[in-house]
Every structure is written in structure tokens, then in C-alpha cells.
Amino acid sequence: MKTTFPQLLLKHAAERPDAAALREKEYGIWQPYSWTALTALVEKVAAGLHQAGLRRGEHMVVIGANRPRLYATMLAAQSLGAIPVPLYQDAVAAECVFPLNNAEVRFAVVEDQEQVDKLLEIRDRCPGISHIYYDDPRGLRKYSEEGLASYDTLIESGSEFARKNPQWFRAEVAKVQPDDVAAMFFTSGTTGNPKGVVHTHGSLLDRATAGAEFDKLTSSEEVLAYLPPAWIGQNIFSYAQWLACGYVVNCPESASTVTIDLKEVGPTYYFAPPRIFEGLLTSVMIRMEDAGSLKRKMFEACMNVAKRVGPALMDGENVGALDKLKYALGDFLVYGPLRNNLGFSRVRVAYTAGEAIGPDLFTFYRSIGINLKQLYGSTETAVFVCLQPDNQARADTVGVPIRGVQIKLADNGEILVKSAGLLKEYYKNPAATAEVLTPDGWYHTSDAGFLDANGHLKIIDRVKDVGRIKGGPNDGAMFAPKYVENKLKFFPHIKEVVALGDGRERVCVMINIDFDAVGNWAERRNLPYAGYTDLAQKPEVYEFIRECVEKVNADLANDTLLAGSQISRFLILHKELDADDGELTRTNKVRRGFIADKYGVLVDALYANRTEQYIETQVKFEDGRTGSVSATLKLSDAKTFTPVKAAA
Questions:
Q1: Residue 439 to residue 417: CA distance in whole angstroms
Q2: 10 Å Cβ neighbour count for 181?
Q3: Which of 216, 251, 271 is the C-terminal boundary of a domain?
Q4: For the chain, what percentages of helix, strand and coil (3-state, to nearest 5) are there?
Q5: What mean pLDDT is predicted for residues 53-74?
Q6: Is residue 279 part of a domain?
Q7: Does the pLDDT of residue 647 top 50, yes or no?
Q8: Least confident stretch, 205-219, 332-346, 613-627
Q9: CATH code of 569's domain
Q10: In a domain? residue 356
Q11: What CATH number is given to the structural domain containing 110?
């Protein structure tokens, strides 16, 4: 698609002036923005930013949740040829220093007082910041910092300029070309400073359009935008594809109302990482466990039919008349009400990505009539590389290459990608750019995988993380930590896992339990506990988690490649892994190396065959204060199984 985001805005405003472009829930009521109203707002904001001195090619930071006025701000910056840089709204102030200085940011538009305080806290370390505009004025009435002003002030100054120069805005939009830089997204920085991924209008819109064609998206779709706009996954679904297709994006009132808003909106096109789908299913199962015996029996009977028949119906396969009748009855009694309760009654296409999703979880959603599929991509590829066709959705693949994508495998099993959606460069980092982009245009994904007989891509792990067991009976066996971690995370009672084993003679893991799921499990067994740390160290919980570990080992024993990755020992951590403590990225990916160093005493204890180990850990609270959590952790053995030899 050879166009730009601002040009698409004008196109929708001309073709469907009164149609809703965005909706925002405010004080419990959904307030629509038509394409005409949105265009008028973008023009005023662009004029205000121009008046304030924002120039073509300059970076402007945007920090906040999904808000129509922040979307308008990104469009306004792009209309001027400037480059919006969304940052994570839950990042602590110190995490913003590098992106702000690296991108030489002068202008910042933020959502509220929390984000203003964050920028003012680091202003002495980011001397370039000269203008900070805030959308929500609550709590900011008495602030008098230099360069700090309300969003409404920006609109007022722009309104006057736009009124006096009626042709100016369209002339500015016309100057912007598809090959111009449209946005910059900072990577999560798993191993050092984050990198600024530079994308053009052309690269983002090419992938947005390819994805829309694949799933036959139209302007009638409804989307709920609730994930961080700084994550390209959210950005591509609720910004790039929004402007490519012209559908409606709904912005929740707050993070705490998302579940309610999901039911009210009833999106037709939905995207969430596996942890969201896991959380929804966990809440359903907790409610069912607390239900009466008659309801539980009906639910179990209907779900048995759904698991057997549902996926086949979703894939368009032939199903017997009796099974169809049973499924229809189950749909009336259980599946339909359940979809409605989850907010998925109108979902036509649902995607998950970012991490592997458990087969049971994947099958559950498809069995109750939700078209859940997987995709493969990254920030550097503008997300869309592989997608699953409607009738070929599988838990163990991530789909087929879509329009405009070429895939090949390097000698070490690394997946290489070529498409029009690749990054232009890493900002101010030519060495890193040269590492991932070959001279002939192939992108090194750093993922190891292969294409199966049906042309579907399977991911094993990150190339750099695939290691070898050294010593012992499994000497030389392949070790894929992420593969092992994901198998454990498929259990709803396990939230996070860190697997260790490269260069060692056996595999050990550190586990985070899901506090809500395990807490409910404990309460039904009259097992008292006083918070996460206490619950995590209960002998009954250890025995329960051991069963999960040993089920994974039994499964791994049947895998000829990874039978040597069976887990010998495990422990349950005394605290939940947290991005504020540096243990997770802002996209909730485990920082395995950091954790192995931080909890070195636990790693040593696991491999020294100790049965318990005392540890004290510093933690950071949401208000910025620090404290510590200490506990004596149990370390437990797990049964391993003799590998099943492949048939000759």
C-alpha cells in the first residue's frame, strides 16, 4: 500500500465522514469520534505542535494508555513528517532515560500526572526535553514547570493557526511520503539497552494490509485496544490496521474495566498474548469449581463433547449428525453463554502471539467456537510474517508465510525472513543493524525452527538459547529452555518458569505459581496461607507442582530431540517475577540471564543437591519504595523417564 497514515485518515474522512473511527469510555458512557471529528482534532494538534517548533524528522515521545487524543497526537506528528515514539506507560522513570536521550527528544505528550511526574523526575538527565503536554489535568493544577502545558492549550494554539491557514494541513500531509519514517519502537532490552526499531509508513502499512487481506478484514470490524501502545503488537492491530481498514477502535476506561468493556464492545477482531487467554480460562475454571454439583456436571459433559467435536467443526470437517446435535445443545447451554460472558460472542478472528500457547488452552477456545489462531512476527518485521488459515489452526505451529514473505533456514536452524515489512534500521546503531540485516535483504530472526510438511512454521527456541547438556547420561543432548518453560507454563497453576541446563549435566527449573489459581486450589482443600511466599512453600503445593513437572518429563521422554531436557530438580520462588525488579521485560518476557545471576545462590543450591536454601531479595513497590522478601525455600527432585526410541 503506497500511502501514509495521515493520507489514509483524510481518505476515511472523505469517504465516511460521520462513521465512528474511535470510541472512548468515559464515566461509563462510550463517546464516539467520527472520522471528520478526528481529522479536525489531528489538524489542530499538528498546527499546535508546528507552532511550538516540532520539525520534520524529529522524534516525539508519546506515553500513556490507548486514548483517542494520544492516537490523534501520533497522527499529528506524522502529518508534520515528525516521528512518534511510544513508550511503555508502566515503565519506571529510569527506563525512559535511554530512549529519550537516544532519540534526542524535545517534545513529549503524555496521558496524566503519573507520566508528567516521571518525566520531571528525570529531566536533569534528559536535558533535551523542552515541551511536555498532558491530556488529563487531574492533580496538575498547581504545577508550574517550564515547558509544561495542557493538551487543551496545544489545541487552542493550533486552532487559531489552522483557521488562518486553511490549506496548510493538507499541504503538510501531501509532503509525507511512504518511504518516510513513520514511527520508532524500542525493543524490550532483554540483554542491555533497548534498540530503536525504525519503521516507515510503507513497511507498517504493507504488513497491516497483508494481514487484513489474509483475514478478510473490513471497515465493519470492532477492536478493543487495551494493551500498551508502545508494543508493536497492539500498535499494528489498533493503529496500522485501523487506518488501513477504517474499522472502529474502542479504548477502555481503565485497565480495571477491560473485562467489562470487552463484554460491552463485543469485538469482532481480537488480539491478546497467551497470558490473557490463560487468565480468562483460569477465572472460568475457578468459577466452575465454586459452582453447584449440577452445574459442574453439565459443564463437564458439554465440554467433553466440545473437545471432541468443536475443533473439527471449526476446521470445516465432517461431523456426524448426532455429534452436531449434541454440540448444538452444548452451545445453547454452555458454549454460547460462556462466549458471551468472556466478551467473545461476536469474535470472528482472534489471535495470540508472543509466547507459545498450551495445546489444552488453544483447544479449549476453539472447541467452544472461538476462532483462535496463532501468528509469528516481531517488532523488526512489523509483526505479520506467518498467520494461521482459519481451517489450519494448530497449537504446535505459528502458521504459513503470508503475502510478500519469504522464509529460509540458515545452517544452524535460524529462521531468516525477507518482506517489505522489515525495519529500516536500528536507530544510531549500524553495528546492530548489520548483525540482523544481510546485504541482500534477509532479516535474522534469532529464532530456531523449521517448516513442516504442510508449510507451517514451527518454533523451537531462540538460537542463542539452544544449548547442550554436558556430562552425565544425557551428555551432548539438545537443551531448549524456552521450550521446556512453555511446556510447564501450559499448566494454569504455573505462571512463569526459568529453566537452567546449558553446559550442565542436568536441567533444573525455578517456578512462579499463579497466585489466584493455586490460592483457589488451596482454599478448596482448606489449606490456610498468608500471602504468596507462604503459599509457595506449602508441602502440598510442592507435591502438586511436582506432578506437573513429571507430566512434562513424561512428554519430553517421547521427544527424540529434547528427551535430554527432562527436569531433574525444581524450586518454587518466594516472590513473583516482576518487570520493576528487572526480572521481566515490559512485554513480560523472562530475562533468564539476569535471573540466573540475581538468584545465583538458588542455582548453586539446586545443582549442589541441597534440600533447602535461605534467600533475601530486594523488591521495588509500585510507589517507588524498596523493601525485601526473605524465605527458606524447599528444593525438590522430580522423576525423569527413559527416552522412548523412535521407530526404525
A1: 13
A2: 19
A3: 271
A4: 40, 20, 35
A5: 97
A6: no
A7: no
A8: 613-627
A9: 3.30.300.30
A10: no
A11: 3.40.50.12780
Residue 594 forms part of a structural domain: yes
Locus of grid cell 527436569: 567
Q: How many domains does the chain have?
A: 2
- Would you say residue 632 has pLDDT above 90? yes
Q: What domain range is 37 assigned to?
A: 5-271
- Retrieve residue 600's grid coordinates: 545465583
Distances (CA, A) of 275 to 257, 338, 394: 18, 19, 18
| Cα 237 to Cα 383: distance, rounded to the nearest angstrom | 10
User: Is the pTM for the entire model greater than 0.90?
Assistant: no
Q: Give the chain's length.
A: 648
CA–CA dist 289, 392 (Å, integer): 33
Q: Report pLDDT digits (tens) over 461-516.
A: 888 888 889 988 888 888 989 889 988 988 889 999 999 999 999 999 999 999 99
> Does residue 20 fall inside a structural domain?
yes
Torsion angle (degrees, nearest 10) of CA 393, 395, 396, 400: 20
Residues near 503 by beta carbon (within 8 Å), at least 6 away in sequence: 467, 468, 470
Domain boundary among 240, 256, 271: 271
Distance CA 575, CA 622 (A): 15
Tracing cell 446435535 back to the chain, one arrives at: 325
Q: C-alpha grid cell for residue 426?
A: 536500528
Question: What type of residue sits at position 268?
Answer: T
